[in-house]
Amino acid sequence: MTDQEIASFYTDTLRRLLELGAGELVRDIESTVARGRLCAEVGGKSGTLQTPLSPLEALVVALHMLVAAVEQPVHVQASQEVLNAEIVWRFDELEPRQLQSDAGPASFPARTSSPVESPQRPELSDNASEALRASATALLTLVRELEEHGNADVD
Amino acid sequence: MPTLTDLRNAVDTLLGLPAIPSVLQLNSNTRDRAFEAYVFSLVVQAVRQAGGTAELRGITTGANPNPAIFRGAPGYMGSTAQDFCFARCVLGTKEFEVHVDVIYVGGSGATHEVDVSLYDRLAADAVRQTPGLQPGTRGLRAAFECKFYDSNLGTALGRAFVGLVSDCGQLKVKDFVTNGQSQGLARYFSKSSGPQAYFRVSPLVTTDADRLVGNIEQALRQWASVG
């Protein structure tokens, strides 16, 4: 794999994510990659100087973050299997704060909404859930192998 | 070592799934909460592996609530505004509970939001029976910081967690758990005699999750004097 091929793949992947509506994820990836590595984290003295990531390191970061981003249904599924119950989230009426991120309000209902409202989360069929799990596992396995062979361990 | 074609094919397959657009549009706060629930379930699994029992309970409905309701934001252990769930556990002679997103009052008087926590059952009962009482950290036995992999996974998070646990008394388990990885954080925790850090904890490739469960199990066995 040449650096040019890797950089092209990285750019193409981010473009496709944008097309799928994953703007927040793309911003997270870009900010992480742009941050590079602090000198203190590569053996230098502490400070704010940063080392840019190589194209391979940037790709590894992007793919790790992609896998993590699609893990939510898998996390829910795994938890439900252990707990033997469906999982939902609701706000505490005593809790005055509303979750807020840089990209806007969280997908959970605001506390001003009905207290019995369910959180927004994808309702996946069993087949869709299994397909997502299998695909994400395959990608994660490849990325970890790449990382181990390419020594692309990055912050 | 995988080739670029392998990676392209894997990404193509993943992004080609019909469910992907709706999954990708969840924001990171939503994903944070799902990761906390996953870590909660790993702690429950560790209790069971140690030979203990763990029963899911709703604060208003009692045993085996379905659905199990988790907090959408940190809240109070005694709140009955929703049927928030927790796990009631028995291991050897120890009785304790596992909670998600509860606010505790530290030794300094400052409040701390603990993502996943183990708390003595008697102390938890007292909190629930006394409206307005916030749990102190005297009955707190374990604290888990759960960090979903996003752009903020830096060493500052490690320092914040070390500060939190230093105000929480004698914890038997204090773990920083993330599905991501960070060389800087790993280096930071390697120098610390305090919390343990667990990276790449995921239900997709479970090697690291299994290690976390095994280590929690061992710590609980030691605490509860279970062979």
Question: Can you characterise this structure?
Answer:
The complex is a heterodimer of chains A (155) and B (227). Chain A has 155 residues and is mostly helical. Chain A is built from five helices and five strands; from the N terminus they run H-H-E-E-H-H-E-E-E-H. In chain A, the strands form two sheets. In chain A, strands 1-2 form a two-stranded antiparallel sheet. Chain A has a two-stranded antiparallel sheet with strand order 4-5. The longest helix of chain A has 25 residues, at 126-150. With 227 residues, chain B is α+β, with helices and mostly antiparallel strands. Chain B has a single domain, classed as Trna Endonuclease, Chain: A, domain 1 (3-Layer(aba) Sandwich), CATH 3.40.1350. Chain B is built from seven helices and nine strands, in the order H-H-H-E-E-E-E-E-E-H-E-H-E-H-E-H. Chain B has helices at 4-15, 20-24, 28-49, 121-129, 155-166, 183-191, 207-224; strands at residues 53-58, 62-63, 68-71, 85-91, 94-105, 111-120, 140-147, 173-178, 196-198. In chain B, a hairpin with a 3-residue loop joins strand 1 (53-58) and strand 2 (62-63). Chain B is globular, with a radius of gyration of 18 Å. Chain B starts with a helix and ends with a helix. The mean pLDDT of chain B is 92. Chains A and B meet through helix 1, helix 2, strand 1, helix 3 and helix 4 of A and helix 1, helix 2, helix 3, strand 3 and helix 6 of B. Strand 3 of chain A pairs parallel with strand 3 of chain B, so a sheet runs across the interface.
Provide mean pLDDT of chain A, rounded: 78
Oligomer: heterodimer
Q: How many strand units of chain A? A: 5
- What structural class do helix, strand and pairing data of chain B support? alpha+beta
* Helical residue percent band of chain B: 25-40%
What string gives the helices and strands of chain A in order? HHEEHHEEEH
